[in-house]
Specification:
heterodimer; A: 329 residues; alpha/beta; six-stranded mixed sheet; four-stranded antiparallel sheet; 14 strands; elongated; B: 255 residues; 11 helices
């Protein structure tokens, strides 16, 4: 199995202080669509900038198709393209001209340059507005133009940093349809960061979750969802809040793994909601807490994200307990 | 690697030409100031005849200086473009292109020379209308344009260096002004260096603008090329130092 990305013990420390990456290890198989999830500041963008040779790691190694990102950086750059999070096209020239400049930078031979550019514009649905200035484009069109820029060199590996941020749902869908059909046609590996769990769920072959500069979980979307082995019962309480004693009682029930309260919303994580519900209801009733609504949820990728990336609003004691549980699994 | 880098530099030059093709407003508004220097200041001071210019009409004397001042204005504010591109994702994407990152710096600097030369194409006809007599030798003109081109490349490199320290556009704006005007006044643009106080004369000797103005003046106004080799050597040293400094400091812009 050919590896598109191989990363070993990657560390990046900014200005001698801020530890953005703290020993990252992972691999990406060639031809896969790989989603990287993680809260803001978890190191996703730093990781991508190191893999795309923009930054040098403080220590550790990273290889792109067996080329070292530090020692063979120019070989790496010949095989990849990259779409940063921020706008990366010149807005004061036309869409066609943007592609033309990039085609020249990448040395696409002049005899088929125009055909390649028009193919990319065509497949991104930009052919009709190719000669308009980019400043007249919508956000979705700009994103598609950026992806067209990344496509013209037919990279073996494409890095997308939050490719659909700020786009409306239909624009997001179009972008992903174009990306998946491009992958199908050329076998390009796609590595992307996102905050949209549904995109990772629908379009990726593998997902990694990153937190505080480390990889905390890998798997396919369904593996991640199943790995939780827990369901969430949500109680909407009539009165704001529950006192700490009640929370403690619920927390100490042996089938309860996590409890979190947010305003009048009490979330209890259990292995099986159907058997746990009557007992919890009993406690709430004896403590005089009125419940307006109960809903139970099967795990989603959001839950997996919240569990592994640890942004759920949990007291510290629970956090350490869940960590222990995770270790024992 | 070298071919990748050269290709990127040429693509950067083409990019500037295409930008200019779409929007020429900046080109015209930037021409206002140098035209005022020539039409108002130059004409008035020329009438006073207070400054010894070795028999050259005063307006003719200051034309090369005004030309260079306006071109370096363009190139110094070019660093601003880099800061701007840093705030957008363009710079990041260029860094992932096959060319060396130094090609990005030098290519961007040299591309500013394109704007500078275009600027000169507006100022020269105006100067002619005002009665400035140029040496009509195509080879001399071509050399003068090459000098303009490379000097503005060097100044664009300074501005990339300043941009890497400043990092925000607002801070940069002030520095741009504070950089250009002293260089302009402490040079041979408006008066011979020997008229300056001794201390300023020392500064003028280290001012790259002095050599650039001397070279362009020799080529297009007086036809006197005795100092040309020295001037070109000084400009070359200036460019090499500035491109190196800019390339090194460029790392700061990236991180």
């Amino acid at each position: 199995m050919m590896l598109a990305i191989e990363v070993k013990q990657l560390v990046k420390i900014y200005a001698g202080k801020v530890k953005a990456l703290n020993g990252v290890d992972f691999t990406v198989k060639a031809g896969d669509i790989f989603a990287l999830l993680g809260p803001n500041g978890s190191g996703k963008t730093t990781l991508m900038r190191i893999l795309t040779t923009q930054l040098k790691p403080t220590s550790g190694e990273a290889h792109i198709f067996e080329f070292d990102v530090v020692k063979n950086d120019s070989q790496v750059r010949k095989n990849i393209s990259y779409v940063p999070q921020e706008t990366s096209v010149w807005t004061d020239i036309s869409g066609f001209e943007n592609l033309l400049i990039y085609a020249k930078i990448y040395g696409i031979p002049s005899k088929n340059r125009k055909d390649i550019i028009w193919d990319a514009l065509d497949s991104m649905g930009l052919d009709a507005i190719a000669n308009n200035l980019v400043k007249t484009y919508s956000g979705g069109m700009i994103r598609r133009l950026e992806i067209a820029c990344a496509m013209i060199i037919k990279p073996k590996l494409m890095f997308l940093d939050e490719p659909t941020i700020g786009l409306d749902p239909s624009a997001r869908k179009i972008v992903w349809e174009k990306l998946t059909s491009f992958r199908k046609e050329y076998g390009t590996t796609i590595f992307f960061n996102t905050h949209y769990m549904d995109e990772a769920d629908h379009y990726s072959d593998e997902i990694a979750i990153m937190d505080k500069g480390k990889m905390v979980k890998f798997g396919t979307a369904s593996e991640l969802k199943h790995s939780i082995r827990r369901e969430v019962i949500q109680f909407n309480l009539r009165n704001h809040g529950v006192d700490e004693i009640v929370l403690k009682i619920i927390r100490n029930m042996d089938f309860v793994s996590e409890v979190a309260i947010h305003n009048s919303e009490l979330n209890v994580v259990v292995e099986d909601a159907e058997t746990a519900l009557p007992d919890i209801m009993e406690i709430l009733r004896t403590k005089g807490i009125t419940v307006d609504k109960i809903s139970t949820a099967r795990p989603t990728l959001d839950d997996a994200f919240l569990k592994y990336a640890g942004t759920m609003n949990l007291p510290n004691s629970i956090r350490s307990e869940t960590t222990r549980r995770k270790d024992s699994l | 690697m070298i071919w990748d880098s050269l290709r990127e530099m040429f693509a950067m030059i083409e990019l500037e030409l295409r930008r200019l093709k779409h929007d020429r407003t900046e080109m015209y508004t930037r021409a206002v100031q140098p035209i005022l220097w020539l039409a108002v200041y130059g004409t008035v001071m020329g009438n006073v005849r207070a400054i010894p210019t070795d028999g050259i009409p005063y307006l003719d004397y200051i034309t090369p200086g005004v030309l260079l001042q306006s071109t370096i204005f363009v190139s110094v504010f070019y660093g601003l473009t880099i800061v701007w591109e840093r705030e957008t994702g363009i710079l990041k994407k260029l860094l992932v292109a096959p060319a060396s990152r130094y090609a990005t710096v030098i290519g961007r600097s040299i591309a500013s020379g394109v704007r500078a030369v275009v600027q000169a194409f507006i100022i020269i006809p105006v100067a002619m209308l005002l009665g400035v007599r140029f040496v009509l030798n195509p080879l001399y003109f071509f050399t003068a344009f090459l000098i303009l081109f490379f000097v503005s490349g060097g100044f664009a490199a300074i501005s990339i260096f300043v941009a890497s320290v400043m990092k925000t556009r607002e801070r940069f704006m002030g520095i741009g002004q504070a950089l250009i005007m002293p260089l302009f006044f402490v040079s041979n643009a408006l008066y011979p260096i020997k008229l300056m106080p001794q201390i300023l004369q020392y500064f003028a000797v280290f001012n790259p603008l002095t050599y650039a103005i001397d070279a362009v003046r020799g080529l297009v106004i007086t036809g006197d090329l005795t100092n040309l080799a020295l001037d070109i050597a000084a400009i070359a040293i200036f460019d090499i130092i500035m491109f190196t400094v800019a390339s090194i400091s460029f790392r700061k812009i990236i991180e």
